[in-house]
Write a structure and sequence with these properties.
The protein is α+β, with helices and mostly antiparallel strands. Helices cover 32% and strands 34% of the residues.
C-alpha cells in the first residue's frame, strides 16, 4: 500500500523515499528547527533520517501513521514533512505534526500542507478529531494550526524537557464537525 500524492496550489505531499534522507538530515538538523520542534533531536544523529524514512511504509500499511514529504511544485524542492501519527481506529483520532526547513518559514507552506492533511485525515481516515501540540513559546506554530481551524484545548505545564529546560505544551484539536462547519459541507 502506497501513500497517495496530494497536490495543493504550491505543494506536493508525497511519500518519502530513501533519497530524501540527506535533505531531511540537513533541514531537520538545523538547530533552530530542532529548537522549535518537539521530536527532532539536536544534534541530529547520522543515519536517523534514513531509519525514520524506512519505517513509513510499514506504519502506513498498518494504519498507524501517514507521513508525507513536502515538496514545492515550482521546482520539486523538498522543504519538510507533515503527518498524522498515533492514529486510533477505535477513537477515530490522530495527532498531526509538521516541520519545515528554516528557509521555508513564514511563506504559508506549513498552513497549506496542514490544510491538505486535514482533508486527507477527515476524508480518507474518517477521523472524528485531529489534535496537535506545540511548545508554548512557539506561537507561530499555534497560529498556523489555529488558521486551519484548530482550537486550544489546554496547556500542559512543564510537560516536556526540551533543550534542557522544562517546557509548557499547548494542546489543540479540530473536530470533524468543526471542519465541516467551516467548509459548509
Amino acid at each position: 500500500m502506497e501513500l497517495p500524492k496530494i497536490d495543493t496550489s504550491r505543494l506536493l505531499l508525497r511519500g518519502f523515499v530513501p533519497e530524501d534522507a540527506p535533505l531531511v538530515q540537513k533541514l531537520a538538523g538545523d538547530k533552530d528547527v530542532a529548537f522549535n520542534a518537539l521530536n527532532i533531536p539536536y544534534p541530529f544523529p547520522a543515519e536517523s533520517a534514513a531509519v525514520w524514512i524506512s519505517t513509513h511504509k510499514k506504519e502506513f500499511a498498518q494504519h498507524k501513521s501517514a507521513i508525507f514529504a513536502i515538496e514545492t511544485t515550482s521546482n520539486q524542492e523538498f522543504i519538510g514533512a507533515v503527518g498524522l501519527t498515533t492514529i486510533s481506529e477505535i477513537n477515530n483520532t490522530a495527532e498531526m505534526g509538521y516541520w519545515l526547513g528554516k528557509s521555508y518559514w513564514n511563506k504559508g507552506f506549513a498552513s497549506e500542507a496542514i490544510a491538505a492533511l486535514i482533508i486527507f485525515g477527515f476524508e480518507e481516515y474518517k477521523l472524528n478529531k485531529i489534535f496537535a501540540t506545540h511548545l508554548k513559546r512557539n506561537a507561530a506554530s499555534g497560529k498556523v494550526l489555529m488558521k486551519n481551524g484548530f482550537q486550544v484545548e489546554g496547556i500542559l505545564r512543564q510537560h516536556i524537557k526540551h533543550f534542557g529546560k522544562y517546557e509548557d505544551l499547548v494542546h489543540l484539536g479540530l473536530l470533524r464537525q468543526e471542519y465541516q462547519d467551516l467548509h459548509e459541507f
